[in-house]
Q: What sequence folds into this?
């Protein structure tokens, strides 16, 4: 399908295993002119993709029944010109590079607002999406990373401190504070 045909089709598949987020994002994208289909996982997404052949997709990185990046090639088989944005709450450089190598148009950290997601989906081929209006601060990104490692270590402060190469008491002070803005 040519870019002109793709531009005329505003079909969007949203794949996320968090029902409140999926529904809220779906409504927001509908209000921005997209015809939305919601899917909660990889198998559900493939079923919907084969039926609707969406022009756009928003895919969560981690799903209950699989990994969102594994879905990208399957969506491209259904529709080679599909524009895909990956959302993740577990962002890191390695997964961002993997996402770009699979052909996604953007990789956004959750929570991403609907305007940012829509801008990424609709950006031209050689046009980078605009920077977010209100990006996370460096302190917030650091805090998110520490929280993620803490959760992955089963909320074990000593193990988390060892893996982050920081003193245990320093980590305890960070964990006791509220998240920075």
A:
């Amino acid at each position: 399908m040519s870019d002109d045909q793709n531009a005329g089709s505003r079909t969007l598949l949203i794949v996320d295993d968090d029902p409140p987020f999926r529904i809220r994002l779906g409504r927001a994208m509908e209000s921005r002119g997209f015809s939305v289909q919601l899917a909660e996982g990889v198998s559900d997404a493939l079923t919907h993709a084969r039926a609707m052949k969406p022009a756009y997709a928003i895919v969560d990185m981690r799903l209950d029944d699989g990994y969102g990046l594994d879905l990208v090639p399957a969506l491209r088989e259904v529709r080679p010109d599909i524009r895909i944005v990956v959302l993740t709450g577990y962002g890191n450089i390695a997964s961002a590079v993997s996402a770009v190598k699979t052909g996604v148009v953007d990789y956004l950290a959750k929570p991403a607002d609907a305007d940012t997601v829509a801008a990424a989906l609709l950006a031209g081929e050689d046009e980078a999406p605009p920077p977010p209006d209100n990006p996370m601060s460096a302190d917030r990104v650091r805090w998110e990373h520490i929280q993620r490692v803490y959760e992955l270590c089963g909320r074990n402060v000593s193990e988390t401190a060892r893996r982050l190469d920081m003193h245990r008491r320093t980590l305890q002070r960070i964990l006791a504070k509220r998240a920075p803005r």
The mean pLDDT is 83. The longest helix spans residues 138-152. The chain is about 50% helix and 15% strand.
